[in-house]
Amino acid sequence: DPPSGFIKTLVQQIGHSLIKLFLTACRRVNNEDIIAVSEHCLQLRQLDLLGSSIIIEATIECILKRCLYLEFLDLSFCDKISNETISIWICQYKNCFKRSYSPRMSDDNIHTEFA
Fewer CB atoms inside 10 A, N or C side of the chain? Predict the structure, then answer.
C-alpha cells in the first residue's frame, strides 16, 4: 500500500498525464485521494478501485462527472457502492464499462455489465 496522502500528492504533480491508474486493494486510498484524481486526472481512461472498502458513492460521482474520457471503472468489492447505484450509473454514463462484484454475493450472482 502507498503511504497515506501519496496518491493525492502524486496526481497533483503528474495527474494531467495519467491515463491509467490501478489502485487495486490499496487499503489506505481514501475519498480525498479519489477526489484529487477527479480534479487532476481529466484524461483518465482507466481506473481500478477493486477492493477499496472506504470509497463512497459521492466520490465516484466526482470521477464520473469530471473524467469524461473514462472507458473502464472497476468497483468490484467496493462495499460502500450499492448495486442499485451501479445500475443507475450504467444508464447515465454509457461511455464507461463498469463491473461490480459484491463480496456478499455467491458466484451465481456475479455479473458484468457493458455500456
Answer: N
